[in-house]
TrEMBL record:
This is Uncharacterized protein. Residues 19-42 are annotated as: Disordered. The lineage of its organism: Eukaryota, Metazoa, Ecdysozoa, Arthropoda, Crustacea. It comes from Hyalella azteca. It comes from the Eukaryota. One of its GO terms (molecular function) is protein heterodimerization activity. Its main location: nucleus. One of its GO terms (biological process) is axon development. Gene3D superfamilies: Helix-loop-helix DNA-binding domain.
Amino acid sequence: MAVSVCVASSDSQRARFLQNIDSPGKGTRQGGNLTSREVLKKRRLAANARERRRMTGLNEAFDRLREVVPALTGDQKLSKFETLQMAQTYINALLDLLH
């Protein structure tokens, strides 16, 4: 078991030291104002927002593809996999018509 000894000269140094003990590897960066935890949280929020935008765009593209690909059933929405399968079948059928 490791024992930590605090020999900090100021309250702020002591607070940083105690914070580092509570969360190893997530202390303050040298010369930075934000703690690593705050930076990581901001990065995670930004990454989550980018992923939401990416998935929204992908889902909208699948919706547009579903509109142009003929479906066997009009009542039920095709899954993404089924949509891709139907698009492939439809494209091959159109190619056969051209040849």
